[in-house]
């Protein structure tokens, strides 16, 4: 789904969300309340510049509009794979972005993630995955890395990984697996505004992902291991 | 006799860091809490899933500590590995030790259990930020031969203090990954000097991305960890606004360039060309004051 479609289905045609290159920003109104929008488009490769741009928009929201809900619109192919970005501390820029989202939450801003197209690894960790909860549209694509690259890094046979990626939720790309593992709380289908409304009504900001992964059966061990450490 | 921290195993690093014999492990290898996902790939499991966690004392102070083993799946964060770290951090939030210390050595998400690993890394990140926000000192020590990359590279930088040795590396994507995506002309992974001046400890120190630069020695890491026990950098709006401005200024200063020598010179490092030949002591003195503002200044 492209972002103008998502925006219109969420807020109608009168929203004030604008794209500037790969960056999405602005605001929109839901049920009379203003929502701040920060995100990316064009399957953005998130490098230092785009991470800092998003961070700046989040800090401006915290400074100028205390408590205003933040909706993160996620479409990223992952971190930018360039030497300049590594030199300039892309890990630092992303940690900074994640820290800004964390601050927003601590200061009472609802922070909602929505994967409306594609979400891969590094670009996702410091956006949707740092929200109070992340949601997705049914057609979203979520994964860590494509299979050929995975085979190269793990030195495992590509055929084995291909076969597993069809059946194994821990391994296979796809939004349903992320729901089962607790990484995505819900799918927004049909009435997207209803999805956002429900997300905004949920004011519990604790990280419930391991518990939800266990309840849904997609990630059976993590919650138990966490509990065992607490009791050891 | 001088010994290399980088050549230690995770458990050796941990033992050398804390007060003698003070480490008490949670979910030790004897409990065999292993990955449920590796067997189907024909990859042997480790009885600690590549990370040791527990409590210890450091100069008599109570710390919770974790050490990642880079020799096991590259220190990759899988479901169990990540859950052990999250458990440690949530326990720290409950029990309030003086500090949480992370001996980070990781390639990031363990690709063998990719989706679970990705979610786990983000759970670790949120849990670490919770601990930091609670006013418990958080310290990352990067001294392993495999460096600290990927999602763990991000998590590591979420601590109050990041300590590196001159031979350690801290970054996001490894040079091989960038080379295979963008070509050797973009990043030649076999050019070790290039790799180190782009991602190594000296560069991170000079550009303000690590807070303490030490020699590759156990005693140096221990001293740096002890000195970090009372270092708190609360992530207030003002602090993040300042960091945002400094990072933006640094990026503007770099322009489109990707060369470390050029960047160091622009940052005001005197004698940038000589940096690769200098030891950590000498490099420590070269960081310009304007860059130090990006770090916690505990040098």
Description:
- Chain A has a single domain (3-205), classed as 2-enoyl-CoA Hydratase, Chain A, domain 1.
- Helices cover 45% and strands 23% of the residues of chain A.
- Chain A has helices at 3-11, 48-64, 83-87, 90-106, 121-125, 147-154, 158-167, 175-180, 192-201, 209-216, 222-231, and strands at residues 16-20, 23-30, 33-40, 44-46, 70-79, 111-120, 133-136, 141-143, 186-187.
- In chain A, helix 1 crosses helix 9 (192-201) and helix 2 (48-64) runs parallel beside helix 4 (90-106).
- Chain A is globular and about 50 Å long.
- Chain B has helices at residues 10-17, 79-95, 114-133, 150-156, 175-182, 192-199, 201-206, 218-227, 237-254, 260-267, 280-284, 289-292; strands at residues 24-26, 51-58, 61-68, 99-103, 137-142, 161-165, 212-214.
- Chain B has a seven-stranded mixed sheet with strand order 1-2-3-4-5-6-7, sandwiched between helices.
- The two termini of chain B are 26 Å apart.
- Classes of the chains: A alpha/beta (232), B alpha/beta (299).
- At the A-B interface, helix 2, helix 3, helix 4, helix 5 and helix 6 of A face helix 2, helix 3, helix 4, helix 5 and helix 9 of B.
